[in-house]
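Thanks for the sequence, V.! I ran EKC/KEOPS complex subunit BUD32 right away. Repeating your input here for the record:
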Amino acid sequence: MIKPEERFFSDGGNYFGVAEDPTTEAFLNVWDWDQLRMVKLKGTAKIFPPDEGREIQIMAQFADYLSPEVRTVALDDDGLITKVSTDPDEDETIFVPYFPFATVPSLADCRIIQYSKLQELDRLGPGVDLSSYKDESENPETVAFKFNSWWKPVRMQMAWDELHLLKSLPPHPNLLRLDRVVLDDVESRVIGFTTKYIPGGTLETLKVPFRFEWLQQLTQVVDFLNLELGIMHQDIAPRNLLIDPDTHQLVLFDFNFAARGKDRLIDGQDDVSSVVFTLYELITNDTHFTSIAPWDRNIDMVQSISEWPCNRELDSDVSVFRNFLDGWAAKRRSDGDMERYLNAPNQLTWPDLPTPAEYNVPYEVGKTMDGEPNLVTGVRTRRVAIELGQYCFRWERPPQSRLLKKKEGENAVADLYQSVAYQGQVA
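Predicted structure:
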Protein backbone atom coordinates (compact mmCIF):
# COMPACT_ATOMS: atom_id res chain seq x y z
CA MET A 1 0.00 0.00 0.00
CA ILE A 2 1.17 3.55 -0.74
CA LYS A 3 2.56 5.26 2.35
CA PRO A 4 0.07 7.88 3.66
CA GLU A 5 2.74 10.59 3.56
CA GLU A 6 3.38 9.86 -0.14
CA ARG A 7 -0.22 9.58 -1.33
CA PHE A 8 -1.14 13.22 -2.03
CA PHE A 9 0.60 16.05 -3.85
CA SER A 10 -0.46 19.68 -3.98
CA ASP A 11 -0.48 20.67 -7.65
CA GLY A 12 -0.93 24.42 -7.46
CA GLY A 13 -3.97 26.64 -7.38
CA ASN A 14 -4.89 30.29 -7.08
CA TYR A 15 -5.80 32.95 -4.52
CA PHE A 16 -8.29 35.53 -5.79
CA GLY A 17 -6.84 38.35 -3.74
CA VAL A 18 -4.25 38.75 -0.98
CA ALA A 19 -3.27 35.24 0.15
CA GLU A 20 -2.63 36.45 3.71
CA ASP A 21 -6.21 37.76 4.01
CA PRO A 22 -8.26 34.90 5.56
CA THR A 23 -11.38 35.97 3.63
CA THR A 24 -9.72 35.60 0.22
CA GLU A 25 -11.33 32.95 -1.97
CA ALA A 26 -8.98 30.25 -3.22
CA PHE A 27 -8.75 26.87 -4.88
CA LEU A 28 -6.00 24.25 -4.73
CA ASN A 29 -5.56 21.14 -6.83
CA VAL A 30 -4.58 17.91 -5.07
CA TRP A 31 -3.29 14.87 -6.93
CA ASP A 32 -4.09 11.47 -5.39
CA TRP A 33 -1.53 8.76 -6.23
CA ASP A 34 -3.86 6.08 -4.87
CA GLN A 35 -6.90 6.87 -7.03
CA LEU A 36 -4.82 8.50 -9.81
CA ARG A 37 -7.06 11.55 -10.00
CA MET A 38 -7.04 15.31 -9.44
CA VAL A 39 -9.52 17.03 -7.13
CA LYS A 40 -9.95 20.79 -6.86
CA LEU A 41 -10.58 22.05 -3.32
CA LYS A 42 -12.36 25.41 -2.94
CA GLY A 43 -12.45 27.57 0.17
CA THR A 44 -10.89 30.63 1.74
CA ALA A 45 -7.35 31.43 2.77
CA LYS A 46 -8.48 30.78 6.34
CA ILE A 47 -8.49 27.01 5.75
CA PHE A 48 -5.88 27.18 2.98
CA PRO A 49 -3.16 29.44 4.41
CA PRO A 50 -0.38 29.76 1.82
CA ASP A 51 2.56 27.34 1.98
CA GLU A 52 1.15 25.26 4.85
CA GLY A 53 -0.12 22.25 2.90
CA ARG A 54 -3.48 22.19 4.68
CA GLU A 55 -5.16 21.06 1.46
CA ILE A 56 -3.42 17.68 1.71
CA GLN A 57 -4.50 17.18 5.31
CA ILE A 58 -8.10 18.07 4.41
CA MET A 59 -8.16 15.90 1.29
CA ALA A 60 -6.88 12.90 3.25
CA GLN A 61 -9.96 13.02 5.50
CA PHE A 62 -12.53 12.28 2.79
CA ALA A 63 -10.67 11.18 -0.39
CA ASP A 64 -11.77 7.55 -0.06
CA TYR A 65 -15.45 8.51 0.11
CA LEU A 66 -15.71 10.71 -2.98
CA SER A 67 -17.50 9.52 -6.09
CA PRO A 68 -15.08 8.92 -8.99
CA GLU A 69 -16.95 11.64 -10.93
CA VAL A 70 -16.34 14.41 -8.38
CA ARG A 71 -14.09 17.18 -9.75
CA THR A 72 -14.40 19.88 -7.06
CA VAL A 73 -15.14 20.02 -3.35
CA ALA A 74 -16.17 23.28 -1.68
CA LEU A 75 -15.48 23.71 2.03
CA ASP A 76 -16.52 26.22 4.68
CA ASP A 77 -14.12 27.93 7.07
CA ASP A 78 -14.35 24.98 9.46
CA GLY A 79 -13.21 22.59 6.74
CA LEU A 80 -16.64 20.99 6.33
CA ILE A 81 -17.88 20.05 2.87
CA THR A 82 -20.62 22.37 1.59
CA LYS A 83 -20.81 21.25 -2.04
CA VAL A 84 -19.33 18.81 -4.52
CA SER A 85 -19.37 19.13 -8.29
CA THR A 86 -19.01 16.66 -11.13
CA ASP A 87 -18.86 19.43 -13.77
CA PRO A 88 -16.23 18.38 -16.36
CA ASP A 89 -15.35 22.06 -16.88
CA GLU A 90 -13.94 22.05 -13.35
CA ASP A 91 -11.46 19.31 -14.21
CA GLU A 92 -7.90 20.70 -13.91
CA THR A 93 -6.19 17.45 -14.91
CA ILE A 94 -3.52 18.01 -17.56
CA PHE A 95 -3.60 15.81 -20.65
CA VAL A 96 -0.76 13.26 -20.90
CA PRO A 97 0.00 12.57 -24.60
CA TYR A 98 1.23 8.98 -24.64
CA PHE A 99 3.06 7.90 -27.78
CA PRO A 100 1.59 5.17 -30.02
CA PHE A 101 3.94 2.19 -29.90
CA ALA A 102 4.14 2.16 -33.70
CA THR A 103 5.61 5.68 -33.67
CA VAL A 104 8.51 4.77 -31.34
CA PRO A 105 10.83 2.59 -33.47
CA SER A 106 13.45 2.64 -30.71
CA LEU A 107 11.19 0.28 -28.74
CA ALA A 108 10.22 -1.97 -31.65
CA ASP A 109 12.21 -4.96 -30.39
CA CYS A 110 10.76 -4.82 -26.85
CA ARG A 111 8.29 -7.38 -25.56
CA ILE A 112 4.87 -5.86 -24.90
CA ILE A 113 1.87 -6.50 -22.68
CA GLN A 114 -1.61 -4.98 -22.84
CA TYR A 115 -2.76 -3.04 -19.79
CA SER A 116 -5.88 -5.21 -19.50
CA LYS A 117 -3.67 -8.28 -19.10
CA LEU A 118 -2.17 -6.93 -15.88
CA GLN A 119 -3.84 -7.89 -12.64
CA GLU A 120 -3.25 -5.46 -9.79
CA LEU A 121 -1.97 -7.13 -6.63
CA ASP A 122 -0.82 -4.12 -4.59
CA ARG A 123 0.14 -0.47 -4.87
CA LEU A 124 3.81 -0.22 -3.95
CA GLY A 125 4.23 3.54 -4.22
CA PRO A 126 3.43 6.58 -6.37
CA GLY A 127 3.35 5.34 -9.94
CA VAL A 128 4.35 1.75 -9.13
CA ASP A 129 1.99 -1.24 -8.79
CA LEU A 130 2.65 -4.86 -7.99
CA SER A 131 0.99 -6.77 -10.82
CA SER A 132 0.82 -10.18 -12.42
CA TYR A 133 0.16 -11.53 -15.90
CA LYS A 134 0.37 -14.79 -17.82
CA ASP A 135 3.02 -15.00 -20.50
CA GLU A 136 2.60 -16.57 -23.94
CA SER A 137 2.95 -20.04 -22.40
CA GLU A 138 0.36 -19.25 -19.70
CA ASN A 139 3.07 -19.11 -17.04
CA PRO A 140 2.31 -16.58 -14.28
CA GLU A 141 4.71 -13.66 -13.91
CA THR A 142 4.82 -11.24 -10.98
CA VAL A 143 6.16 -7.82 -11.91
CA ALA A 144 6.51 -4.23 -10.81
CA PHE A 145 4.45 -2.03 -13.16
CA LYS A 146 5.78 1.53 -13.40
CA PHE A 147 3.73 4.25 -15.07
CA ASN A 148 3.46 8.00 -15.45
CA SER A 149 -0.15 9.06 -14.96
CA TRP A 150 0.49 12.65 -13.89
CA TRP A 151 1.61 15.32 -16.34
CA LYS A 152 4.76 17.30 -15.66
CA PRO A 153 7.39 18.13 -18.31
CA VAL A 154 10.17 16.64 -16.21
CA ARG A 155 8.14 13.48 -15.55
CA MET A 156 7.58 12.95 -19.26
CA GLN A 157 11.33 13.25 -19.84
CA MET A 158 12.14 10.94 -16.93
CA ALA A 159 9.67 8.29 -18.12
CA TRP A 160 11.07 8.39 -21.67
CA ASP A 161 14.69 8.20 -20.51
CA GLU A 162 14.16 5.48 -17.91
CA LEU A 163 12.30 3.23 -20.33
CA HIS A 164 15.01 3.57 -22.98
CA LEU A 165 17.81 3.21 -20.45
CA LEU A 166 16.37 -0.03 -19.05
CA LYS A 167 15.82 -1.32 -22.57
CA SER A 168 19.47 -0.55 -23.42
CA LEU A 169 21.11 -2.01 -20.31
CA PRO A 170 23.23 -5.10 -20.99
CA PRO A 171 22.60 -8.13 -18.75
CA HIS A 172 24.13 -7.63 -15.30
CA PRO A 173 23.47 -9.58 -12.07
CA ASN A 174 23.17 -6.39 -10.02
CA LEU A 175 20.81 -4.41 -12.27
CA LEU A 176 17.04 -4.64 -12.67
CA ARG A 177 16.29 -4.56 -16.39
CA LEU A 178 13.21 -4.06 -18.55
CA ASP A 179 10.62 -6.83 -18.71
CA ARG A 180 7.89 -5.51 -21.01
CA VAL A 181 6.47 -2.29 -22.40
CA VAL A 182 2.85 -1.76 -21.30
CA LEU A 183 0.37 -0.57 -23.94
CA ASP A 184 -3.19 0.66 -23.55
CA ASP A 185 -5.87 -1.52 -25.13
CA VAL A 186 -7.51 1.05 -27.39
CA GLU A 187 -4.69 2.66 -29.39
CA SER A 188 -1.61 0.68 -28.26
CA ARG A 189 0.00 3.72 -26.67
CA VAL A 190 3.03 3.35 -24.38
CA ILE A 191 1.76 3.98 -20.84
CA GLY A 192 4.47 2.29 -18.78
CA PHE A 193 6.69 -0.73 -18.38
CA THR A 194 7.26 -3.72 -16.15
CA THR A 195 10.33 -5.12 -14.45
CA LYS A 196 10.90 -8.33 -12.54
CA TYR A 197 9.49 -8.16 -9.03
CA ILE A 198 11.94 -9.05 -6.28
CA PRO A 199 10.10 -9.78 -3.01
CA GLY A 200 11.29 -8.98 0.47
CA GLY A 201 11.42 -5.21 0.39
CA THR A 202 14.31 -2.81 -0.07
CA LEU A 203 17.28 -2.38 2.24
CA GLU A 204 15.44 0.58 3.73
CA THR A 205 13.06 -1.86 5.43
CA LEU A 206 14.72 -5.26 5.02
CA LYS A 207 16.50 -5.86 8.33
CA VAL A 208 18.90 -8.62 7.32
CA PRO A 209 22.60 -8.84 8.21
CA PHE A 210 24.44 -6.71 5.66
CA ARG A 211 27.20 -8.56 3.86
CA PHE A 212 30.57 -7.17 2.85
CA GLU A 213 30.12 -8.74 -0.58
CA TRP A 214 27.04 -6.56 -1.14
CA LEU A 215 29.15 -3.44 -0.70
CA GLN A 216 31.63 -4.85 -3.20
CA GLN A 217 28.79 -5.58 -5.64
CA LEU A 218 27.44 -2.04 -5.21
CA THR A 219 30.77 -0.40 -5.98
CA GLN A 220 31.32 -2.73 -8.93
CA VAL A 221 27.93 -2.00 -10.49
CA VAL A 222 28.43 1.73 -9.96
CA ASP A 223 31.79 1.52 -11.72
CA PHE A 224 30.12 -0.40 -14.53
CA LEU A 225 27.37 2.19 -14.96
CA ASN A 226 29.62 5.22 -14.64
CA LEU A 227 32.83 4.17 -16.36
CA GLU A 228 31.60 1.65 -18.93
CA LEU A 229 28.15 2.95 -19.91
CA GLY A 230 28.39 6.67 -19.07
CA ILE A 231 25.32 6.47 -16.82
CA MET A 232 25.03 8.21 -13.44
CA HIS A 233 22.21 6.72 -11.36
CA GLN A 234 21.95 9.80 -9.09
CA ASP A 235 19.56 8.22 -6.58
CA ILE A 236 21.51 5.44 -4.88
CA ALA A 237 19.98 4.91 -1.45
CA PRO A 238 18.78 1.98 0.69
CA ARG A 239 15.25 2.41 -0.75
CA ASN A 240 16.61 1.60 -4.23
CA LEU A 241 18.57 -1.51 -3.27
CA LEU A 242 17.13 -5.03 -3.21
CA ILE A 243 18.47 -8.43 -2.30
CA ASP A 244 17.40 -11.11 -4.75
CA PRO A 245 16.36 -14.15 -2.63
CA ASP A 246 17.15 -16.48 -5.54
CA THR A 247 20.71 -15.30 -6.22
CA HIS A 248 21.48 -13.56 -2.88
CA GLN A 249 22.88 -10.71 -4.96
CA LEU A 250 22.37 -7.00 -4.40
CA VAL A 251 20.21 -5.38 -7.10
CA LEU A 252 20.10 -1.67 -7.95
CA PHE A 253 16.88 -0.29 -9.48
CA ASP A 254 14.87 2.91 -10.10
CA PHE A 255 16.57 5.02 -12.77
CA ASN A 256 14.14 7.95 -12.49
CA PHE A 257 16.91 10.48 -11.96
CA ALA A 258 19.63 8.88 -14.06
CA ALA A 259 21.90 11.05 -16.19
CA ARG A 260 23.39 10.06 -19.52
CA GLY A 261 26.70 11.86 -19.88
CA LYS A 262 26.00 15.54 -19.18
CA ASP A 263 22.27 15.20 -19.84
CA ARG A 264 20.31 15.73 -16.58
CA LEU A 265 23.51 15.63 -14.50
CA ILE A 266 22.77 17.08 -11.04
CA ASP A 267 25.51 18.90 -9.16
CA GLY A 268 26.51 17.11 -5.96
CA GLN A 269 24.52 13.96 -6.68
CA ASP A 270 27.31 11.78 -8.03
CA ASP A 271 27.11 8.06 -7.37
CA VAL A 272 30.34 7.85 -5.38
CA SER A 273 29.03 10.27 -2.76
CA SER A 274 25.69 8.44 -2.72
CA VAL A 275 27.38 5.09 -2.05
CA VAL A 276 29.28 6.59 0.90
CA PHE A 277 26.12 8.08 2.45
CA THR A 278 24.20 4.87 1.72
CA LEU A 279 26.68 2.66 3.55
CA TYR A 280 26.76 5.08 6.47
CA GLU A 281 22.96 4.93 6.70
CA LEU A 282 22.86 1.14 6.37
CA ILE A 283 25.36 0.64 9.19
CA THR A 284 24.23 3.37 11.59
CA ASN A 285 20.51 3.74 10.76
CA ASP A 286 21.18 7.51 10.89
CA THR A 287 19.04 9.08 8.17
CA HIS A 288 19.45 12.78 8.93
CA PHE A 289 21.89 13.34 6.05
CA THR A 290 19.11 12.46 3.59
CA SER A 291 17.37 15.72 4.51
CA ILE A 292 20.38 17.75 3.32
CA ALA A 293 20.33 18.81 -0.33
CA PRO A 294 23.02 16.98 -2.37
CA TRP A 295 24.76 20.25 -3.26
CA ASP A 296 24.99 21.18 0.44
CA ARG A 297 26.64 17.99 1.64
CA ASN A 298 29.91 16.19 0.98
CA ILE A 299 31.25 12.79 1.99
CA ASP A 300 33.66 14.33 4.50
CA MET A 301 30.63 14.82 6.73
CA VAL A 302 30.47 11.09 7.36
CA GLN A 303 34.00 9.99 6.50
CA SER A 304 35.36 12.36 9.14
CA ILE A 305 33.30 10.67 11.87
CA SER A 306 35.88 8.60 13.70
CA GLU A 307 33.49 5.83 14.73
CA TRP A 308 30.28 4.86 13.00
CA PRO A 309 27.88 3.44 15.61
CA CYS A 310 26.85 0.03 14.34
CA ASN A 311 23.09 -0.43 14.53
CA ARG A 312 22.78 -3.28 12.04
CA GLU A 313 24.14 -6.79 12.06
CA LEU A 314 27.14 -7.11 9.71
CA ASP A 315 29.12 -10.11 8.53
CA SER A 316 32.42 -8.24 9.07
CA ASP A 317 33.73 -5.55 11.37
CA VAL A 318 32.76 -1.96 10.55
CA SER A 319 36.43 -1.22 9.88
CA VAL A 320 36.46 -3.74 7.01
CA PHE A 321 33.56 -1.93 5.32
CA ARG A 322 35.04 1.52 5.94
CA ASN A 323 38.56 0.68 4.77
CA PHE A 324 37.26 -0.77 1.53
CA LEU A 325 34.85 2.12 0.99
CA ASP A 326 37.50 4.77 1.70
CA GLY A 327 39.92 3.18 -0.74
CA TRP A 328 37.32 2.88 -3.47
CA ALA A 329 36.02 6.43 -2.98
CA ALA A 330 39.55 7.89 -3.00
CA LYS A 331 40.34 6.10 -6.25
CA ARG A 332 37.08 7.19 -7.89
CA ARG A 333 37.38 10.81 -6.76
CA SER A 334 40.89 11.18 -8.11
CA ASP A 335 41.63 13.57 -10.98
CA GLY A 336 40.21 12.43 -14.28
CA ASP A 337 37.23 10.50 -12.91
CA MET A 338 34.66 12.82 -14.49
CA GLU A 339 36.54 12.66 -17.78
CA ARG A 340 36.43 8.86 -17.64
CA TYR A 341 32.68 9.04 -17.01
CA LEU A 342 32.06 11.42 -19.91
CA ASN A 343 34.20 9.28 -22.23
CA ALA A 344 32.91 5.86 -21.19
CA PRO A 345 33.73 3.33 -23.94
CA ASN A 346 30.22 1.82 -24.24
CA GLN A 347 27.97 4.83 -23.78
CA LEU A 348 24.27 4.13 -24.07
CA THR A 349 22.32 6.10 -26.65
CA TRP A 350 18.66 6.58 -27.43
CA PRO A 351 16.58 9.19 -29.31
CA ASP A 352 15.52 12.46 -27.73
CA LEU A 353 11.98 12.84 -26.43
CA PRO A 354 9.89 13.96 -29.42
CA THR A 355 7.15 16.57 -29.30
CA PRO A 356 3.81 14.72 -29.10
CA ALA A 357 1.77 15.09 -32.26
CA GLU A 358 -1.22 16.16 -30.15
CA TYR A 359 0.68 19.26 -29.01
CA ASN A 360 0.81 20.52 -32.59
CA VAL A 361 -3.00 20.74 -32.76
CA PRO A 362 -4.09 24.30 -31.87
CA TYR A 363 -6.86 25.07 -29.42
CA GLU A 364 -8.64 28.26 -28.47
CA VAL A 365 -7.70 30.31 -25.41
CA GLY A 366 -9.99 33.31 -25.30
CA LYS A 367 -10.20 36.00 -27.94
CA THR A 368 -7.76 38.51 -29.41
CA MET A 369 -8.26 42.29 -29.15
CA ASP A 370 -10.03 42.05 -32.51
CA GLY A 371 -12.44 39.42 -31.24
CA GLU A 372 -10.80 36.62 -33.19
CA PRO A 373 -10.11 33.21 -31.59
CA ASN A 374 -6.71 33.15 -29.86
CA LEU A 375 -5.23 29.82 -30.95
CA VAL A 376 -2.25 28.23 -29.19
CA THR A 377 -0.44 24.91 -29.33
CA GLY A 378 1.34 22.81 -26.72
CA VAL A 379 0.20 21.56 -23.33
CA ARG A 380 -3.54 21.42 -22.71
CA THR A 381 -5.98 20.20 -20.07
CA ARG A 382 -7.68 16.87 -20.45
CA ARG A 383 -11.06 18.50 -21.05
CA VAL A 384 -9.61 20.53 -23.96
CA ALA A 385 -8.01 17.41 -25.45
CA ILE A 386 -11.34 15.57 -25.24
CA GLU A 387 -13.13 18.48 -26.93
CA LEU A 388 -10.57 18.25 -29.74
CA GLY A 389 -11.26 14.55 -30.13
CA GLN A 390 -7.83 13.53 -28.87
CA TYR A 391 -7.55 10.14 -27.18
CA CYS A 392 -7.22 10.33 -23.39
CA PHE A 393 -6.25 7.30 -21.37
CA ARG A 394 -8.11 7.35 -18.03
CA TRP A 395 -6.25 6.14 -14.96
CA GLU A 396 -8.91 6.74 -12.28
CA ARG A 397 -9.50 3.78 -10.00
CA PRO A 398 -11.14 3.02 -6.61
CA PRO A 399 -9.14 3.70 -3.43
CA GLN A 400 -7.16 0.71 -2.29
CA SER A 401 -8.86 0.79 1.11
CA ARG A 402 -12.17 0.01 -0.61
CA LEU A 403 -10.64 -2.85 -2.56
CA LEU A 404 -9.16 -4.29 0.62
CA LYS A 405 -12.54 -4.12 2.39
CA LYS A 406 -14.17 -5.82 -0.60
CA LYS A 407 -11.55 -8.55 -0.51
CA GLU A 408 -11.97 -8.98 3.24
CA GLY A 409 -15.73 -9.29 2.70
CA GLU A 410 -15.26 -11.86 -0.05
CA ASN A 411 -12.92 -13.84 2.18
CA ALA A 412 -15.42 -13.69 5.04
CA VAL A 413 -18.20 -14.99 2.78
CA ALA A 414 -15.94 -17.78 1.51
CA ASP A 415 -15.05 -18.72 5.09
CA LEU A 416 -18.75 -18.76 5.98
CA TYR A 417 -19.60 -21.07 3.08
CA GLN A 418 -16.73 -23.39 4.02
CA SER A 419 -17.92 -23.42 7.63
CA VAL A 420 -21.54 -24.21 6.62
CA ALA A 421 -20.35 -26.93 4.27
CA TYR A 422 -18.17 -28.45 6.95
CA GLN A 423 -21.03 -28.38 9.49
CA GLY A 424 -23.28 -30.07 6.92
CA GLN A 425 -20.71 -32.80 6.42
CA VAL A 426 -20.41 -33.32 10.16
CA ALA A 427 -24.19 -33.43 10.57
